[in-house]
Amino acid sequence: MIASLPMYDRPETRDANDALWAEIRMRLPWPTPQTLTRGGDPWDHWQSPDLILSQTCGYPYRAHLHGHVQLAGSPVHDLPGCPPGHYNSVIIARADDPRDSPADYAAARFAFNAALSQSGWAAPQNYAAAQGFRFTNPVQTGEHVLSARAVAEGRADVAAIDALTWLLILRHDPFAVDLREITRTPPTPILPYITAPGRDADTLARAVAAAITALPTAHRNSLALSGLTRIPAAEYLNVPNPPPPEPGAPVLG
Q1: Exposed e or buried b for every residue in 124-158, given b needs 16+ CB within 10 A?
Q2: DSSP 3-state of 150
Q3: Which of 9, 214, 230, 249 is 20 to 30 A from 113 in CA distance terms?
Q4: Integer Cα distance of 39 and 215 in angstroms
Q5: Mutual orientation of helices 163-172 and 144-152 as an angle, nearest 10°?
Q6: Is residue 72 a contact partner of residue 192, using CB atoms and an 8 Å limit?
Q7: pLDDT tens digit string along 64-110?
Q8: Ramachandran region of residue 81, left (φ > 0), alpha (ψ -120 to 50) or beta?
Q9: Are the C-beta atoms of residues 119 and 160 closer than 8 Å to each other?
Q10: What is the dihedral angle through the alpha carbons of 22, 26, 30, 34, rounded to the nearest 10 degrees?
Q11: Element (H or E) spanning 218, and its range?
Q12: Residue 5, SS3?
């Protein structure tokens, strides 16, 4: 059996995620793993018939996982300008970079975590298209935190960071002082909780909602987590998919 919460699991949030899973599993009427699965390929977790609970990104869900997993709710985080169950991307640059507009970075080195990332690739490219330009010089990093670090260290010029990840970077990563926010993209449905086909997603969602309510305040604050909502699959599927990065985009080590 697999339970994983990989998307916002970092040393400073590990205890909170462990406590959240402990609260969830005690409310489920079927056997569950005692501890969260950490490490390995998240795609293996998401596609496993043994999946009890995980969290995926909206882009992988609409591109590949829809029809192969069930939605089990969307977390509500304390994010400015976002309705419950939604988030957005924060477009960032170095603090000493004089460029003011996202369009000024159209040909700059654009750090992105993954081509199937809603917040790291789809949201900024959809935002740019609505403004009449495109980020045309992508460099891949593999993680949001690595994208932000690459900008701070001058190995990239601009990046789009998941708003919750950005909040955690501001709290915990010293290099954040070298970065500044340029703008935020329009909100889209947040990273959903999922479970394998055939499981009781409604019972799971009720357990998650009750677990969040029961979580100690310090752990809820650590995750900026305040509740659960149910967003229909159609809202995830209606988000447009931008063109992918051109083949051969450089990968930053």
Answers
A1: bbbbbeeeebbbebbbbbeebbbbbbbbbeebbbb
A2: helix
A3: 230
A4: 24
A5: 60
A6: yes
A7: 999 999 999 999 998 999 999 999 999 999 999 999 999 999 999 99
A8: left
A9: yes
A10: 30
A11: helix 217-223
A12: coil
SS3 content of the chain, % helix, strand, coil (to 5): 35, 20, 45
Instruction: Tell me the sheet residues that pair with 193.
Output: 55
Q: How many CA atoms lie within 13 A of 210 on its CB side?
A: 13
State which amino acid sits at residue 192. Answer: P
- How many degrees, rounded to 5, is the angle at CA 138 between CA 121 and CA 182? 65
Find the length of the chain.
253
Q: What's the rounded Cα separation, in Å, for the pair 195 and 55?
A: 9
Task: Classify residue 166 as exposed, middle or buried by CB count within 10 Å of its CB (0-12, 13-18, 19+).
Answer: buried
Report d(CA 170, CA 80) in Å as an integer: 14
DSSP 34-64: SS---SS-HHHHHT-TTEEEEE--HHHIIII
Q: What is the pLDDT of residues 3-47, one digit of tens each?
A: 999 999 999 999 999 999 999 999 999 999 999 999 999 999 999
Residue with tokens 């900026």: 224
Strand partners, 137: 109
Q: Are 4 and 32 in contact (CB under 8 A)?
A: no
The pair of three-digit structure tokens given for residue 146, joined into one six-digit string: 């690595």
